[in-house]
Each structure stands twice: as structure tokens, then as C-alpha cells.
């Protein structure tokens, strides 16, 4: 059984159809990437899973449970973390406060402390900056904080929407290294990226979305060497 399964989903913004018959699976322990150009429907796919937009048709299963109609709050409590495009940390709150927001579903103090330590092991910089306001940090640090905040809830599935966006190449390298490391330690990841080259290098499998439809899918390695993809996305 897949951890996440999208079955023929369709999503509309008013009369505009953003997703057409999207089917996709993420198995436990995988990094699956969804690549495609601007406006292809990548963010809408993640929002459909986390319950930020309603489906016009189709269904979504998480751990075998039907979550098609669940609102965002409930998908979070079930273990789906969604790090949105543009990071959206709370700029006027400190690093510590931002992280604690992520821990809202964790009742036990000891567990919160354990999660904090775990987040610091991935992002030592956050520990040094605990009292700094989120908005005063660099783009890369804010991305790390956004991922750290998502990890605080100990999710079963981590969905990342363009974590490399707007970051310097060396920081992008670091972020992708951390994504790989998280996965090596068991985290299942659904990664949306325009940066197809780097995403396919770390992904077990990938899907290519174009104007709301999946046009290609396969192992990351295979897609990396696919001519159609090389021309369209890796140029
Ligand atoms: P990007 O990288 O630019 O976010 P994307 O692949 O994530 O691209 P989506 O943001 O999912 O694409 O958008 C898919 C389509 O839906 C686009 O045509 C977009 O213009 C449209 N769309 C997205 N959000 C809305 C909205 N709130 N209202 C109307 N149309 C929208």
C-alpha cells in the first residue's frame, strides 16, 4: 500500500481547470518529485493533498484512509506537512517561536524538546539564531526554518514546494543534501521543483506535469536521461 495515492484528481479555480486527471503515488521511504514549468499545476497538486483547495473530482488516500475532503488542519494532524512555495515563515516571530508553531499538535513537552534537538541536528544554524526574528534571516535560512517548522510535527509525509526557489547555488546544494539526509533517515518526501536536474538526481521516482496533466513518469535516473525532458527542462 502506498503512503499517498492520488486517483484521477481534478481541481478547478472557478472555471479554470488547473489539474486534469492526475494520478500519482508516493510509497513509504521514497523521494518522489513532481517537476514542470511555471503554472503547470505543481503547487495546486500539493494544495489538493493538504486540503487547501477542494477537488472537483477524484480521490486522495493517505495511509489507506480517504482524505479527499479533509481541510488543511486535519491533514496536518494526520501527519502531512506542507512547506509552501515562498517559505511563509512568520517574519516578526523569532526562530524559536516559528518552530513552536510547528509543534502545535505535539502535546508532550519532552517530545517537543526531542523534536527541537532533531531539527537542530539538521540545521545547526537555527540553534544559534533562536531569538532572531524570522524575517531578518537570509532566504536560505528562512527555507531551513520553514522545513524545520514542518519537521516539528514529526510528519509521516513531508511535501516541499520549490525549496530551491530564489536561493544561491551553494545554498541549493545544502538544501538538497538535507532533503537526501532526511530521506536516508526514513522521511517520505514529495518534492515539487522547477529545478528538474537537481530534483531528479535525488528522487527515486519522478512525474512530469504539463498544463495540469502528467505527461511522463519513471525512476529519477531514467527521467534524467530522457531526451524529451532534457530538451524541455534541463536545457
Ligand atoms: P508555479 O511554479 O508558478 O507555482 P505551478 O506548477 O505550481 O507553478 P500552480 O500554481 O499549481 O502551478 O497553477 C496551476 C494553474 O492554476 C495556473 O494556470 C495558475 O494560473 C492557476 N492558478 C493557480 N492558483 C490560482 C488561483 N488562486 N486562482 C486562479 N487560478 C489559479
UniProtKB/TrEMBL annotation:
What are the protein's UniProt keywords?
Amino-acid transport, ATP-binding, Nucleotide-binding, Transport
Give the Pfam families listed for this entry: ABC_tran
Q: Does the keyword ATP-binding apply?
A: yes
Gene3D superfamilies given for it? P-loop containing nucleotide triphosphate hydrolases
Recorded GO MF terms: ATP binding; ATP hydrolysis activity; branched-chain amino acid transmembrane transporter activity
Please verify whether the record's keywords include Metal-binding: no
Q: Which GO terms describe its biological process?
A: L-amino acid transport
Q: Do you know which SMART domains this protein is assigned to?
A: AAA (SM00382)
Do you know which PANTHER family this protein is assigned to? HIGH-AFFINITY BRANCHED-CHAIN AMINO ACID TRANSPORT ATP-BINDING PROTEIN LIVF
Family per similarity comment: Belongs to the ABC transporter superfamily.
Write the protein's name: Amino acid ABC transporter ATPase
Q: Which organism is it from?
A: Priestia koreensis
Its lineage reads:
Bacteria, Bacillati, Bacillota, Bacilli, Bacillales
Amino acid at each position: 500500500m502506498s503512503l499517498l495515492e492520488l486517483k484521477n484528481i481534478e481541481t478547478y479555480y472557478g472555471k479554470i481547470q488547473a489539474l486534469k486527471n492526475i494520478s500519482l503515488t508516493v510509497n513509504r521511504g521514497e523521494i518522489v518529485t513532481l517537476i514542470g514549468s511555471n503554472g503547470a499545476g505543481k503547487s495546486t497538486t500539493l494544495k489538493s493533498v493538504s486540503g487547501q483547495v477542494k477537488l472537483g473530482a477524484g480521490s486522495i488516500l493517505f495511509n489507506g484512509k480517504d482524505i479527499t475532503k479533509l481541510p488543511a488542519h486535519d491533514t496536518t494532524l494526520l501527519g502531512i506537512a506542507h512547506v509552501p512555495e515562498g517559505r511563509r515563515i512568520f517574519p516578526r516571530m523569532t526562530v524559536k517561536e516559528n518552530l513552536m508553531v510547528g509543534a502545535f499538535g505535539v502535546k508532550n513537552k519532552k517530545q517537543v524538546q526531542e523534536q527541537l534537538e532533531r531539527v537542530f541536528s539538521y540545521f545547526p544554524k537555527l540553534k544559534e539564531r533562536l531569538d532572531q526574528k524570522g524575517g531578518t534571516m537570509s532566504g536560505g535560512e528562512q527555507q531551513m526554518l520553514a522545513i524545520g517548522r514542518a519537521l516539528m510535527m514529526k510528519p509521516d509525509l513531508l511535501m516541499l514546494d520549490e525549496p530551491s526557489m530564489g536561493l544561491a547555488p551553494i545554498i541549493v546544494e545544502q538544501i538538497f543534501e538535507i532533503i537526501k539526509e532526511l530521506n536516508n533517515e526514513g522521511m517520505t518526501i514529495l518534492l515539487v521543483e522547477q529545478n528538474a536536474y537537481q530534483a531528479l538526481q535525488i528522487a527515486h521516482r519522478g512525474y512530469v506535469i504539463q498544463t495540469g496533466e502528467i505527461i511522463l513518469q519513471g525512476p529519477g535516473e531514467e527521467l534524467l536521461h530522457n531526451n524529451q525532458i532534457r530538451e524541455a527542462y534541463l536545457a
